[in-house]
Amino acid sequence: MRTKYDQETKDRVIRMFYERRQEVPGESMRASFRQLHDLTGISPDTMRGWVDRARVDAREKPGVTTAERAEIRALRKEVAELKRANEILKTASAFFAAAELDRRLK
Fold first, then answer.
1. Distance (Å, rounded) from C-alpha 74 to C-alpha 36?
2. Which single residue of 53, 55, 70, 93 could bond 61 by disulfide (Cβ 3.0 to 4.6 Å)?
3. 50 in Cβ contact with 13 (< 8 Å)
4. How much is the average pLDDT of 91-100?
5. Considering only 2-6, 10-14, 52-56, which range has the smallest mean pLDDT?
6. CA-to-CA separations, 54 to 7, 42, 99, in angstroms, rounded
């Protein structure tokens, strides 16, 4: 079962994770997530995804940032729309060319 968390909750958990890492620098990330799970009740895997996304967005970890991902999604949508428009124009062009040829033959 997927549960949606609001952005404020995500930001608070990410902040708590970084604070925990500063307080206990030798602690493993897994242990930090377990500790936060005990405090918040949020799955460690869910929190790990949020922290990983935050690290990519902060350029601390390689990957595609949220802004880049949104831009790629928008560009893919635009390309799909342009391909559809191009197909419509090709069909219309063929239709009118056939009509013009038919008109000239009469």
1. 35
2. 55
3. yes
4. 87
5. 2-6
6. 12, 17, 58
- For 96, the token pair is 């009118």
Mean pLDDT of the chain: 92
Question: Chain-centre distance of CA 94, in angstroms?
Answer: 39
First to last CA, the chain: 68
Mean pLDDT (whole number) for 27-56? 95
In SS3 terms, 11-46 reads as HHHHHHHHHHHHHCCCCCHHHHHHHHHHHHCCCHHH
Quick one: the chain helix, strand, coil %, rounded to 5? Answer: 80, 0, 20
